[in-house]
Amino acid sequence: MATNLGTIQRMTAADPALTTWPVLNWDIFCKVVDNYGDLGVSWRLCRDLASRGQRVRLWVDDASALRWMAPLGCAGVEVRAWTQPLSLQGVAAGEVLVEAFGCEIAPEFIATNAYKQRAGGNKVAWINLEYLSAEAYVERSHGLSSPVLRGPGAGLTKHFFYPGFTPRTGGLLREPDLLQRQARFDRTVWLRQHGIEWRPGEQVVSLFCYEPDVLPQLLDQLATQAASTRLLVTPGRASAAAQSAIERKNRLDPSWNMGGTLSISYLPALDQIDFDHLLWSCDLNFVRGEDSLVRALWAGRPLVWQIYPQHDDAHHDKLEAFLDAIDAPASLRRFHRTWNNIDPGPLEALALPAWGLAIQAARARLLQQPDLVGQLLEFVNTLRA
Ligand code: TRH
Predict the structure, then answer these.
(1) Are residues 42 and 157 in the same domain?
(2) Using CA atoms, how far apart are residues 78 and 25, in angstroms rounded to an integer?
(3) Residue 138 Cα, ligand 1 centroid: separation in angstroms?
(4) Are residues 53 and 167 in the same domain?
(5) Are residues 214 and 299 both part of a single domain?
(6) What is residue 206's DSSP assignment?
């Protein structure tokens, strides 16, 4: 990385054009609502910005998941507790404020930034980073501004930044070296290093989900297929759901997996980099939420997404929009609707070759589009120009 008078230059294979961005100080605010996605997306954003030479502070109200998600931290990223009130001793206002997923940035922090801007010492770019969706409103809303009329930030302007699947959105998080790392990756070595006994020819499937009603049906499918399967179950809700389904099956139908076609490994929590490796190692990935979906797309293997459920069923349209965005074949659409408790089933048979082709085509299309951090850097620098 060449550094010159506060300006960095980076050239990458994913983005061959030489891009020059000033080094800015970013304050990214994240409130953990539930699960791991709020922190997972925020952390990935921080890492990506830091890898491109930006200076990042992540303010988070509950950083506990970083102990396993990022045990080694990341050079260039400082994690700060989002206490109430915020402790601002020794904190100089940065140039970029990001509120992840509409969390309201601490007013005392906004006050220091607004003061600096009013005093003429700083030009603040205030970004509201939204949730990922493939719905049509995303293109309409991406980049819109909203003047702040009240409170300590009155006079500043917020801008909405929408991740998405088309060139007229903010794109997807994708590190510049992703493809090179994938090309160097060896699945056999990784599985062995993680103590996973894998026999060549055995199908490897990852399971990261909430509690799908049809999980027992999936287990039946995997246990009765011709090919044997090794199911790698992630800890937490997925593991609890799998264990409870298996206990019930063992009680009601002890012969359900008599031939041992299905083998199950319960994984420990992996750090975020190794979570990617898990997805790259599998022939089929069950993912959920937001961040793991994007990672499974980049993995390029057949995937099934359990969408984060919303009480008003707004997630139904969001799921359909995603299936449209990846041009999912009919069987993959039917599988998703049942997996997401939208259609009662029975669960569609797995059709990995067709699903794999669709995901690879979607991945290839998405790789043509600029990544989220590249776009965000451009956006912020345009705002501050
Ligand atoms: O945990 P999630 O269900 O998060 C959800 C969604 O983000 C949802 O949109 C949001 O509204 C809700 O949280 C509050 O799934 P997601 O988004 O995939 O986040 C999981 C993160 O955890 C992701 O960054 C990958 C990481 N992870 C690891 O690093 N190691 C692991 O072993 C596992 C299982 C996950």
Answers:
(1) yes
(2) 11
(3) 21
(4) yes
(5) yes
(6) E
HEC readout, 139-194:
HHHCCCEEECCCCCCCCCEEEEECCCCCCCCCCCCCCCCHHHHHHHCCHHHHHHHC
How many other C-beta atoms lie within 10 A of the C-beta of residue 49? 24
Domain count, the chain: 2
Taking only the tens place, the pLDDT of each residue in 143-180 is 999 999 999 888 889 999 999 999 999 999 999 999 99
Reported pTM: 0.94
CA distance 307 to 328: 15
Residue 85 has pLDDT above 60, yes or no: yes
Q: Give the residue among 128, 85, 81 at the shortest CA–CA distance from 109.
A: 85
Q: For residues 62-73, b (16+ Cβ closer than 10 Å) or e, as one string?
A: ebebbeebbeee
Residue 147 and residue 190 in one domain: no
Task: Name residue 334's beta-bridge partners.
Answer: none
Ligand 1 binding pocket includes 51 (Cβ within 6 Å): no
Q: How far is the CA of 92 from the centre of ligand 1 (A)?
A: 31
| Mean pLDDT across 38-67 | 97
Nearest-CA residue for ligand 1 atom 23 is: 40
How many Å lie between the centroid of ligand 1 and the Cα of residue 75? 22
Query: Ligand 1 within 6 A of 291 CB?
Result: yes
**pLDDT of 204-238, one tens digit each?**
999 999 999 999 999 999 999 999 999 999 999 99
pLDDT tens-digit readout, 110-134? 988 776 777 676 788 999 999 999 9
- Asked if 264 contacts 143 with a C-beta cutoff of 8 angstroms, the reply is no
**Any idea which residues carry the catalytic annotation?**
38, 290
Q: What is the span of the domain harbouring residue 237?
A: 178-367
**Is 206 found in the same domain as 154?**
no
The three-state DSSP-derived secondary structure of 74-88 is: CCCEEEEECCCCCCC
